[in-house]
Each structure stands twice: as structure tokens, then as C-alpha cells.
Design goal:
The complex is a heterodimer of chains A (about 475) and B (about 210). Helix content of chain A is about 45%, strand content about 15%. Chain A has helices spanning about 10-20, 35-40, 45, 50-65, 80, 120-135, 150-155, 160-165, 170-190, 210-230, 245-250, 265-275, 285-290, 295-310, 330-340, 340-350, 385-400, 415-425, 450-460, and strands spanning about 70, 85-90, 95, 140-145, 195-200, 235-240, 255-260, 280-285, 315-320, 375-380, 405-410, 430-435, 440. In chain A, strand 7, helix 12 (about 265-275) and strand 8 form a beta-alpha-beta unit. In chain A, helix 4 runs parallel beside helix 6 and helix 12 packs parallel to helix 14 (about 295-310). Helix content of chain B is about 60%, strand content about 10%. By secondary structure, chain B is of the alpha/beta class. The chains are: A alpha/beta (about 475), B alpha/beta (about 210).
Chain lengths: ~475, ~210
């Protein structure tokens, strides 16, 4: 890729991508919310009520998932709680709003006076400051704030949507009130060290472009302008199917748009690029990251990268906050792919999940019946992939040094035969060395002595030859 | 066709509740059977708005005001339907899964099902899994509709499907929906049907019940 912006670390790389500048690899932002609690062994209720828990969850996520950015806390009830909404707490989800203080009228003057010193907001800001000090130079921090439409719905309830049809000033006035709160939150986060303000407004997925443009976009623009004036970057997160609003969302003043799996990422890429905006998404949160396995994750990363295309400005992320019990191995797999382009190439060769092919027509040796020890080196292709070349060469050298009958075969997964070996031998990673049908060295180039010992053990097992390590 | 029926259908589509209630009253005063008012004006009105919703021509707020108008008409009509011995064709239990307090989508689906002559028992939001089983058993429901708005409560939907399946309710079909839900997720958790929006829920409900 040409004209790359030199980046010192993940944070710099992400901030460049958010500004639509070319970067050398795709930045990755796992939206660790209550999952941070799972990482440190506390439930969601305890996690979101302690600066220390939030910080420790972030630190653990930073260590395990090697992200370029992290949201400090993913809790769209922080502001609503201060304003008098009752919350229902749960062990594995963020709290939910259980009452609407403006359910009967629009008397915002009767609500408690809002400040960022109230409720749980100080915990989140303290966690931001601690994260900034601990790793904030390497990893960008996102301050997550509740979007004005979602906050207005928390306060008023669903009637807000009906009231949009009444020709009164009440809805715009309530949205303006929520906008002012968002501006205060954004400012506080930026002062505490956040780099990016994510305005999360999932209820935008429930309205049409006309209502979005009339009621919501002007409010969002006031927030985005303020973030820019304060020196931060801004992102608009909309969970849910926001396809119909993509044009209108991209026409706002934010730097970045982030969506979830309900939106086709290729559609967003096209619209965002036309508006000069960076964009992010949309790893599948539940079907893949929560319920799937590492191969499902690999396929989904490739799917997202391909849909995003090669133009600058893409940020790989789940579309919404990660479930509490999301599989850590899956997120570690995303990290592995992000940091190693070779892993992406391997992932591209994975057979489709629903591939109903047992490769019955491709026979593999009856290893026990063979006189020689058989080494199958399962690779992407040693001609074009450095780790494959090293591991293949290591196997060949060990075979030469081993004074017994041995044959080494490269099985390239670029072809169906290689895929048959991969499946039948139960190969867990590429490249991998299997000795007499057993995977012995997965994605690691073994020490020569170790490999020769493995050949020797196999020869002894079948009673042919002796080792001379 | 009676002009007031046409006007009532238009009032439902536009969500003009005061007009809709006045027209319903006029039609009843004219001697029209309550079931005819429902079937010839309210159901077609909701059906039109539902089709527009599917085509992305209207959105949740427009559906809500139409549903509100219909609901206010049903306040007049329901006692008359009961008195006339009109019985719903199917029975459904609906609720938002445990941990999730969102109800817009769930309310819309409930309203659309009612409009399609289903008896609907709405369990509300944050419904413990066992309540779905109890309610389905109590009301002899053939359909359980599960809603979730949060990705974080999708596991609760999976759990609910498992518990309903484990209960001895062989004729019960399960329909799932909500902003983060996908057909893929529906397949994964073993539900019988997924509806991407409230408007499609009626068709999907009928489809799974006839399967």
C-alpha cells in the first residue's frame, strides 16, 4: 500500500484510520463492556459500580485482545440514572431503565440537576484517567455517551415516538436538553483522557430518515462540533438495522460511523466513503463471537475485511457491546488475525462452515501400516508464506538428520487435497506438522531436537528404525 | 363499499385516533357487525401500514401511531366481539426476555397479532423464562413470541427457547424477533421462526403454525 501514514502504535494507527488516513493494518476495537467484568471474575452489577473493576477489566482486555482502542464503559444508563430513571440490574447485562421520570409530562425542570459528579459517572471518569495513565498512550480510549434520542426515550418512554407526530415544541426541547447533557459528558471524558467520543444512539435504528433529519441530526451535530472544538474525534454508534438511515447518519458531522451485523458492511463502506467518513463494524456478536468457535471467528473477520474493502478508514469492531460471556478465545483469534496478515490468508482458505464434504474420495495413508514415518506439513503454501516455508524447511532438515525411514509431504490447503488432510488429521492451526497422523506442532516451528525426537518416538512406536538425535 | 369503512381504514393508516374512534362509532351506529368493522377496516389498515413498514416507507413511530389508533377502536369493539361469541383463531403468549426491558417491538407484534385475530397474552418485559412456559400452558397457547432488543440479552432468548423446548408443550411453536436478532441466530437457538419486523410477524406466525 502506498502513502502509508507512519504509526508508532495502535492508538496512533487507530486515530489515523478514524481520520480516513491510510494505515498499514486494520485497527481493531473490541467493544468490551460488561465483558470486562467477566474477565476479572465479577458480575455486571459489581463491574459497573466500581472504578477499580472497570479499570481492571480494561487492563485485562488490553492484555488479552491487543486492541488499538477500547471503550471505557459501555453503559447507556449512566446519564439516565442521574436524571431519576430507576435501573434494573442484572448479572450479565448492563442495567436497564425501569422507569421514565417524564412519562406523564415534559417537565425537565423537575428532573435532578445533571452534573458529571453524580451517580456512577465519577467511577467511569476515574477509570478513564487510570486507563489513560496505564496504557492510554498505546491504546486509544473511547468515552461512550448516550445519544440524545435514546436518552430522551429513557426519560419519556415510548410516547416520545408518538409525540414526534404532534406539532409541538416538546420533543425538540427534550432532545436539546439531552444534547446538553451529552456535551457535558463528552467534555468530561475528553478531560479525563478519552481520545474518541462514541455517541451511542441505538434508537436511531427504529426511526426513518425524515424523523432522524428533523429531530436527531441537529442534536448530534451540536455534540460532534463540541467534541471537535475540544480536540477529540467522534463516532456515531447505531446498533440495530440502521440501513435506511446510513445516508443521513453519514451526512452528520461525526468522524466515524459504527454499525452492527444488521447492516451490510459493504453498504456502509460505500456510503461512508462517499461522505469522506471512516467507518467500523460489524463482527457478529452472538452467532460468531459468543456462540461460534475460532474458525467461525476467522471466517467472519475475513468477511468483514472483504466487505470493508481496501479504501482507508475502516475499523474492525463488533457492532455493539460484547456479551458478558463472549468467548475470550474468539476475541484472541480476532487479535491474532489483525496483527498477522498471514493468519488472514490462512483464514481465507478455510472451508465454508456448511461445507458438506467429508473428502471421502481422498485417501490419507494408513500411518500404522507404513514402514516409514510420515510427516505431513500442512501449510498455506511454502512458496508464498514465510512461516510455512520455515516450518516445511525445519521438517525437511529434521528428516535428513533422522537416520530412519521418513518421508515428508507438504499438504497445501490451497487445494482440496490439502483441505482433506487438514480435516482428516484434525489440524488446529496452519502451518502444522503432523507425525504419523498426529498433530505434533501446531503453528510453531519446533526446535530441531524436539522434532527429531518426535520422529524417533513414531519410529519406535511402529518398530522401525532407531533414533539418532 | 361503505364510505365510512374506507375512511376508517385511512384513519388507521394515518394514525388519526380521534377520527378512527368516531368512524368506528358511526359504523356501529349504522348497524354494522363489530367483526366486519375489524375485518374490513382495521385489519386492512394495519396490513397496509405493515406492508409500508416492510418496504421501508414508514418506520416504528408510524406503526406505533397506527397501532394506537387501532387499540382505541378496539376498546369499543372488544366487548361487542366477546358478546357476539367471536373467538380468536389462535392463541399466543408474548414477552421480552429476561434482563431486557424494551417493549416497543414486542408491543407492535402483539398489536399486529391481535389485528390478525390472535388471542394475545402479553407477559410484558424482563420475563423470567419459566413464565413463558407457565403462560403457554395456562392459556393453551400454540405460539410463544420472544423479543430482545439488546445483544446482551440474546443469551436469555436462547435459554428461553431451551426451557420451552424442554417443557412438555409439543404443539407450541416459538417465534423470535428484535433489533439484534437474525435468521442465523434463530436457527442457532432452534426457534421455529424469525421475523425481522413487526409487520412480518403475522405472516411468519401463520407460517410456523401451519407447518
Amino acid at each position: 500500500m502506498n502513502n502509508l501514514t507512519p504509526s508508532k502504535n495502535g492508538r496512533e494507527l487507530l486515530l489515523c484510520a478514524l481520520r480516513c488516513q491510510p494505515v498499514e493494518r486494520t485497527p481493531w476495537v473490541p467493544f468490551v463492556g460488561v465483558h470486562g467484568g467477566a474477565l476479572i471474575g465479577v458480575d455486571a452489577t459489581a463491574h459497573l459500580q466500581s472504578a477499580d473493576h472497570i479499570f481492571r477489566g480494561l487492563r485485562e482486555a488490553a492484555k488479552r485482545y491487543r486492541p488499538d482502542g477500547l471503550p471505557v464503559a459501555f453503559d447507556l444508563q449512566l446519564e439516565a440514572e442521574v436524571l431519576g430513571c430507576a435501573l434494573a440490574w442484572a448479572k450479565e447485562t448492563p442495567p436497564s431503565v425501569a422507569s421514565h421520570p417524564l412519562g406523564a409530562d415534559y417537565a425537565t425542570q423537575k428532573l435532578p440537576t445533571f452534573s458529571v459528579d453524580q451517580g456512577r459517572i465519577p467511577f467511569v471518569l476515574e477509570a478513564t484517567r487510570r486507563a489513560k495513565a496505564a496504557f492510554g498512550e498505546e491504546i486509544a480510549l473511547y468515552g461512550v455517551i448516550t445519544g440524545p434520542l435514546t436518552l430522551a426515550l429513557h426519560l419519556r418512554g415510548d410516547d416520545l415516538l408518538l409525540d414526534m407526530f404532534e406539532e409541538t415544541d416538546e420533543v425538540p426541547e427534550l432532545l436539546a436538553y439531552c444534547t446538553e447533557i451529552a456535551r457535558q459528558m463528552a467534555e468530561a471524558y475528553l478531560e479525563a483522557g478519552a481520545d474518541v467520543i462514541a455517541v451511542v444512539d441505538p434508537m436511531v435504528s427504529q426511526i426513518g430518515p425524515h424523523h432522524f433529519e428533523e429531530f436527531v441530526a441537529p442534536c448530534l451535530n451540536r455534540i460532534f462540533d463540541h467534541v471537535r472544538d475540544c480536540g477529540g474525534l467522534s463516532s456515531l454508534f447505531v446498533c440495530g438495522n440502521a440501513t435506511r438511515n446510513l445516508e443521513a447518519m453519514c451526512a452528520t458531522q461525526c468522524d466515524n460511523i459504527s454499525i452492527d451485523e444488521n447492516v451490510n458492511l459493504a453498504d456502509l463502506a460505500r456510503v461512508a466513503q462517499a461522505h469522506g467518513k471512516s467507518f467500523g463494524g460489524n463482527l457478529k456478536l452472538t452467532v460468531v463471537l459468543l456462540l461460534g468457535d475460532e474458525d467461525d471467528t476467522r471466517r467472519d473477520v475475513v468477511r468483514a475485511l472483504d466487505q470493508a474493502g481496501t479504501a482507508p478508514g475502516f475499523v474492525l469492531a463488533p457492532g455493539c457491546d460484547l456479551p458478558y460471556a463472549v468467548k475470550t478465545a474468539n476475541l484472541e483469534t480476532v487479535a491474532a488475525l489483525v496483527h498477522d496478515p498471514y493468519q488472514v490468508e490462512v483464514a481465507r482458505r478455510l472451508p465454508a462452515k456448511d461445507l458438506d464434504d467429508d473428502f471421502a474420495d481422498i485417501a490419507i495413508p494408513e500411518y500404522g501400516a507404513e514402514k516409514s514415518v510420515i510427516v505431513d506439513v500442512v501449510t498455506l503454501d511454502s512458496a508464498g508464506c514465510a512461516p510455512c516455508a520455515y516450518i516445511y524447511s525445519a521438517a525437511m532438515e529434521a528428516a535428513r538428520a533422522f537416520e530412519g525411514p521418513v518421508s515428508v509431504h507438504e499438504r497445501k490447503i490451497t487445494g482440496r487435497e490439502g483441505l482433506a488432510y487438514m480435516k482428516k488429521l484434525g489440524v488446529s492451526a496452519i502451518p502444522s506438522i503432523c507425525v504419523d497422523g498426529q498433530e505434533r506442532f501446531a503453528s510453531i516451528i519446533p526446535d530441531r531436537r524436539e522434532l527429531i525426537q518426535a520422529l524417533s518416538d513414531a519410529a519406535t512406536a511402529k518398530g522401525t528404525g532407531r533414533a539418532s538425535p | 363499499m361503505n364510505q365510512n369503512l374506507t375512511l376508517l381504514q385511512s384513519a388507521i393508516e394515518a394514525g388519526k385516533r380521534k377520527d378512527a374512534v368516531a368512524l368506528t362509532r358511526s359504523l356501529l351506529d349504522e348497524g354494522m357487525a363489530p367483526l366486519d368493522v375489524v375485518e374490513q377496516a382495521l385489519v386492512p389498515g394495519m396490513s397496509v401500514i405493515g406492508e409500508k413498514f416492510k418496504r421501508n416507507e414508514v418506520f416504528v413511530p408510524e406503526m406505533l401511531i397506527a397501532a394506537r389508533a387501532m387499540k382505541e377502536c378496539m376498546v369499543l369493539l372488544e366487548p361487542l366481539l366477546v358478546a357476539a361469541g367471536v373467538k380468536p383463531k389462535h392463541t399466543a403468549v408474548i414477552g421480552t426476555v429476561q434482563g431486557d426491558l424494551h417493549d416497543i417491538g414486542k408491543n407492535l407484534v402483539a398489536m399486529m397479532l391481535k389485528g390478525a385475530n390472535f388471542a394475545v397474552h402479553d407477559l410484558g418485559t424482563n420475563v423470567p423464562t419459566e413464565k413463558f412456559v407457565e403462560a403457554a400452558r395456562e392459556h393453551g397457547a400454540e405460539l410463544v413470541c420472544l423479543s430482545a432488543l439488546l445483544t446482551t440479552t440474546m443469551p436469555a432468548m436462547r435459554e428461553a427457547v431451551g426451557v420451552i423446548r424442554a417443557a412438555a408443550l409439543p404443539k407450541v411453536k416459538i417465534l423470535v424477533g428484535g433489533a439484534p436478532i437474525t435468521q442465523e441466530f434463530c436457527n442457532e437457538i432452534g426457534a421455529d421462526g424469525y421475523s425481522p419486523d413487526a409487520a412480518s410477524a403475522v405472516d411468519k406466525a401463520k407460517e410456523v403454525l401451519s407447518a
